[in-house]
Amino acid sequence: MIAFFEPLINPIFLPVLTAALFASVVGGVMGSFVVIRRMSSLAGSISHALLGGLGICLWAERVMGYFCPPIIGALLAALLAAFIITYLKHHHKEREDAAISAVWSIGMAIGLVFISKTPGYNVELLNYLVGNILWSSPEDVVGLLILATLICLFIAALFQPLVALAFDEEQAKLQGIPTEKLDYALTALVAVTVVILMSVVGAILVIAMLTLPAMTAALISRRFSSMILISIGCSIVAFLVGFLSSYHLDWPLGATTSLSSALLYGIALTLHSKAV
After folding, report:
1. What crossing angle do the helices spanning 179-201 and 138-157 adopt, rounded to 10°?
2. Nearest residue to 197 (alpha-carbon basis) of 257, 137, 125
3. How far apart are CA 47 and CA 151, in angstroms?
4. Which one of 24, 75, 94, 188 has the largest count of C-beta atoms within 10 Å of its C-beta?
5. Cα 213 from Cα 7, distance rounded (Å)
């Protein structure tokens, strides 16, 4: 039994475990806002649109020889996608669904074009798509910790206005809250969170890790504050179970973590159904 948990105390894995746990905390917090505000399709669009930034940076590094970290390209593409969707939402509301779909497909198309022009089989790209934080460099880990800390500080500073926006935007506007600016900020935070979680579970599976813990928490809690705490706990448990399972079973880390999160949701849903 002790041998099963040995990877958790192995010094080699300590930096990436720390970064992944920070990412789980951020995912739990932001996932609660995504679920309550029904932003999962928007987050899905961002998670696929960032492939454009990844593809451009990989091409620039491998073909042109420029220093262009793919994680930076993903972050810029995610923020651009978030801005475009939020702008169209507030100024051309009837086109919001179309904008989400368009950003989703265009971002992927741009990424695939540049990836096709990048020679060789790209293991690095595969890690970004399916997730493998163990592959991350020390600089990537530090970057994840910084981004996660900044998001937590921002959420703490604007918690009440963000909660008001998430539950009832019209009522928040009547209270004098600058809802449009706050919506831009919230969407940008979702974009950054998607990039952070991408390093853990990959761009393809990031929505599962962003929504399933929060959906699990929503079945258990009755207050938003407790929902966030439970969502964080579920995210951390899902990662730890996924990490240990992938280590011993030799499964992909991102897929195993997402399956662990789905398992937790399934258990909570079953217990909730019986209670009702």
Report:
1. 150
2. 257
3. 18
4. 24
5. 23
Q: Domain containing 125 — which CATH number?
A: 1.10.3470.10
Total number of domains in the chain: 1
Whole-number Å distance between alpha carbons of 66 and 189: 28
Residue-wise pLDDT tens digits, 156-192: 898 899 889 888 888 888 888 898 899 999 999 999 8
The C-alpha atoms of residue 31 and residue 36 are separated, in whole angstroms, by 8
Dihedral sign from CA coordinates of 216, 221, 224, 228 = negative
- Overall size of the chain counted in residues: 276
- Supply the angle between the helices 40-59 and 96-116 in degrees, to the nearest 10: 20
- Across the chain, mean pLDDT equals 85
Q: What percent of the chain has pLDDT over 90?
A: 26
Query: What average pLDDT does this structure show over 211-228?
Result: 92
Residue with tokens 């979680």: 197
The answer to whether residue 152 scores a pLDDT higher than 90 is no
Residue closest to 186 by CA, chosen among 112, 92, 83: 83
Question: Is it the case that residue 121 has pLDDT exceeding 60?
Answer: no
Give CA–CA dist 77/56, Å, rounded.
10
Provide the residue range defining the domain that includes 222. 3-275
Angle formed at CA 70 by CA 39 and CA 87, multiple of 5 degrees: 35
Instruction: Give the tens place of pLDDT for each residue, 23-48.
Output: 888 888 999 999 999 888 889 899 88
Give the largest Cα separation in the chain, rounded: 60
